[in-house]
Amino acid sequence: MTIRTKRPVSPASARSANRVKTVPVALSALTGLLGLPALPAAAQAAPALAWRACPSGQGPAEMECAAIEVPVDWSAPGKATITLDLARLPATEPSLRLGSVLVVPDGGPGIQGVLSPAPESFTTLRRRFDVVGYNPRTSAAGRYLPPSCGVPGLPLNDPRDRAAYEAQAAGLERLVERCRQDDTTGLADHLDSDSVARDMEAIRTALGQDRLTMLAFSYGGVPAAAYARLYPGHVRAVVFDSTPDPTVGWRGMERAQLRATEAAFKRFTTWCAGDDACALRGRNVRTLWRALVKSTGRRPVTYASARLGEIRLTDVHLKALARVVLPVPEKAPEFADALLKASKGDFAWFGEQVLGISASWSSPGAAATRCPDGLVGLGYEALVSDRRYSERISRDFGGGVGTGLEALACSGWRHRPVNPPRPLPAGLPPVLGLGGDRDFPVTDLLVSRIPRSVTVRYDGPVHVVYLRAKDPCVTGYADRYLTELTLPRAGTLCPPR
Q: Gene3D superfamilies per the record (predicted)?
């Protein structure tokens, strides 16, 4: 039986249901849910889910689907609601079944995006658990929000003074306010990770679980951490896979992130020195990189795109792209070619990439999804201070992502954070972290804050290693922990097969 509530919100029409895009990294601020009770009454009373066969072609034949209605605003549970879709892969040995594992996705679809493409990843886990995925409200929002929430954002120029910062922030704020004014559902004001965590509590009670077992991927670890903060007594086990540390925000993670970027750059230069596929073979790559950073820092390069607009590229943009691209080996030939062209004055690749990121990250819907979590500092003073802090850590890559473009993307969201960085409560059970080369440092920061917890490192540049590494070492440790609550030794490393 589907949960009944007083007034469901009708989804937007097919013509206007622009999907709200989420981004792989965090943004910042919003208001609305501060001071709510730790255990909302609506979640406590949630009835059981009605599982049924999924629509043809949606996933494996054994996958089952259900839906749950949750309040748009958890402080007003008797008012408007939205529907979240769920799917489960049932336990294959029912007599040994321990319960359900909730897969917390990074903001993308929980059914098609997690369970359908990789059911084999859960083969061992399914001996003892139902594996349940769902579409969080940050993904389902595209069904409800108006078109103005899904429009592209503005080019994220690097402001060189307060006036330029405020002018750009005002333009972004106008987009955000248009989205909020057009939104008759109120959902745009309730896409923060605390709201997602309260939805997870409703799912827990609907599943009939005394405590929740979670497998959280990428940014999905932020609402999983929010859940642990709101409902510490309802946590059985958590795997944080490639998750940022929401207890400190991006500045608090900057040193660890930049160490990972420097390591990725070293791998890139080593590859360039020995592979003919590198357009820069025979060149001193670090010297070339520093020259580009220095020249664009002094004299920005204007790039215009008929499709995406115009931007003034600076060193901040180059650093941001390097931090996104370097950890992905498949992008190495493309990045090397772009660097060679830039050294000759052709910055088209950098311009197109930055404009595309700008359109996605600063879209009103994306801002509504991530800015409420407060992971970046807001205001011109914070931007300058955070950037200087980052550049002191790394002259080659500091100031690029969380302390650069992400902070700019949230500059138009002028509301207090709902889920600001703060410590997790004492008394949580030990958790397990997983991370490849690019994510291990920041995931380990989070996991190390929970006593007796352990992070396993996968020795490869893979994001979300449980699903994508296809490595029994990684899945073996995770499955054993989720099943038996047994953690590996500290310092455990899984080498690629």
A: alpha/beta hydrolase
The string of pLDDT tens digits covering residues 282-315 is: 999 999 999 999 999 999 999 999 889 999 999 9
- Rounded Cα–Cα distance for residues 192 and 284 (Å): 45
Taking the model in full, what pTM does it have?
0.89
Q: What is the fold of 1-146+183-246+430-497?
A: Rossmann fold (3.40.50)
Nearest by Cα to 149 from 411, 365, 372? 365
Distance CA 344, CA 283 (A): 14
Scanning 121-248, the segments in alpha helix (DSSP H) are 137-140, 162-182, 193-207, 221-230
Domain ranges of the chain: 1-146+183-246+430-497, 250-409
Q: Is 231 exposed, middle or buried (0-12, 13-18, 19+ CB in 10 A)?
A: buried
Residue appearing with tokens 């914070």: 382
**Contact criterion met (CB below 8 Å) for 152 and 363:** yes
Instruction: Measure the CA–CA gap between 322 and 293, rounded to whole angstroms.
Output: 11
Structure tokens at 119: 């059911």
Report the C-alpha gap between 252 and 294 in whole angstroms.
26
For residue 252 the two structure tokens come to 């608090």
H or E segment and range at residue 349: helix 348-361
pLDDT per position as a tens digit, 20-74: 333 333 333 222 222 333 334 444 455 689 999 998 888 888 999 999 999 999 9
Torsion of CA 167, 169, 174, 176, to 10 degrees: 170
Positions in the chain short of pLDDT 70: 1-47, 111-112
Distances (CA, A) of 67 to 88, 106, 203, 292, 381: 11, 19, 10, 52, 45
Contacts 24+ apart (CB under 8 A), 478-481: 478/125, 478/215, 478/239, 478/241, 478/432, 478/434, 479/124, 479/125, 481/237, 481/239, 481/432
